[in-house]
Design brief:
The complex is a heterodimer of chains A (about 100) and B (about 160).
Chain A: H1 5-11, E1 15-18, H2 33-49, E2 55-58, H3 70-73, H4 86-101
Parallel strand pairs in A: 1-2
Chain B: H1 5-12, E1 40-45, E2 49-51, E3 64-67, E4 76-78, H2 86-90, H3 98-107, E5 112-113, E6 117-120, H4 127-144, E7 149-153
Parallel strand pairs in B: 1-5, 1-6, 1-7
Antiparallel strand pairs in B: 2-4, 3-6
The chains are: A mainly alpha (about 100), B alpha/beta (about 160).
Chain lengths: ~100, ~160
């Protein structure tokens, strides 16, 4: 699966399925199981349909037909949310560990 | 239009030594010997997924986590420094479609989903570490699990 066509063309994996979605959503937007499922089904079909090494199948899905501004912003400066301070991140991690240790 | 991520990476990380992209000259290829509906398929995500109290990933981390395929959504968490993880934290299926793969297994679209699934944190600067350390370990796991193919989802 890929959303970064140029990187995939450079790496040349045996088979690839390209979807033009923002990074972090290669198998779909959150809480949209039907669309996610269709994307994954398409990817599984590509195992059979791709017969020449390095082929990249392009999926037809559009992230937002009315707003393509994400294409200008994805992976540019200011696009990543601020990372929490180290102490905050450590506290969050301790909380996560504790939650699962409690069962 | 597909986004040109190689120039954007150069720009985003312009304060660092320019990243040397992996540029392979050829493509290995093993044709499937049977229909996908009869294949054992493994799910691998570089989105930084962790199961329950598995240790969190960190920068330059080339380790991987085994995720039981029976894992419930609330047993998964996400850590990655290189993409906004908000949506994946809400629904890991954005980059780790475990529930979807289980549905496809139940529906007979794939033969079997290999248990466990695997995840690592794909923001690893060293391509050598990935090629010589991380990939061989996962490959070994896949061979032992008799996987016919794997589905790699980046983030």
């Amino acid at each position: 699966m890929t959303s970064a066509l140029d990187i995939t063309q450079s790496v040349k994996p045996p088979r690839a399925v390209f979807i033009n979605f923002p990074l972090g959503h290669q198998t779909g937007p959150p809480d949209q199981p039907e669309l996610q499922r269709q994307i994954v089904v398409d990817a599984m079909r590509a195992f059979e349909s791709i017969s020449s090494p390095g082929s990249i199948v392009e999926l037809p899905y559009v992230w937002d037909a009315n707003d393509r501004s994400w294409e200008d912003l994805d992976y540019t400066r200011g696009w990543m949310p601020e990372r929490p301070a180290r102490e905050v991140a450590d506290a969050l991690e301790a909380e996560r560990q504790a939650k699962f240790r409690r069962g | 239009m597909p986004v040109a991520y190689i120039p954007r990476t150069r720009d985003l990380y312009s304060d660092f030594t320019p990243y040397r992209w992996v540029e392979n000259q050829s493509t290995p290829f093993a044709p499937l010997t049977k229909p996908v509906a009869e294949c054992r398929i493994a799910l691998i995500s570089s989105g930084g997924i962790m199961y329950r109290d598995q240790p969190r990933f960190h920068r330059e981390d080339a380790s991987y986590r085994r995720i039981p395929t029976r894992a419930r959504p609330d047993e998964l968490s996400v850590w990655h420094f290189g993409y906004p993880t908000r949506d994946a934290k809400r629904d890991a299926n954005c980059v780790f479609p475990l529930q979807r793969m289980r549905e496809l297994e139940a529906a007979g679209v794939i033969g079997e989903l290999v248990d466990p699934a695997f995840s690592f944190m794909g923001g690893i600067y060293s391509a050598r570490k990935v090629r010589d350390e991380l990939a061989p370990q996962i490959l070994d796991e896949l061979k032992r699990a008799h996987a016919d193919a794997f589905f790699l989802v980046p983030a």
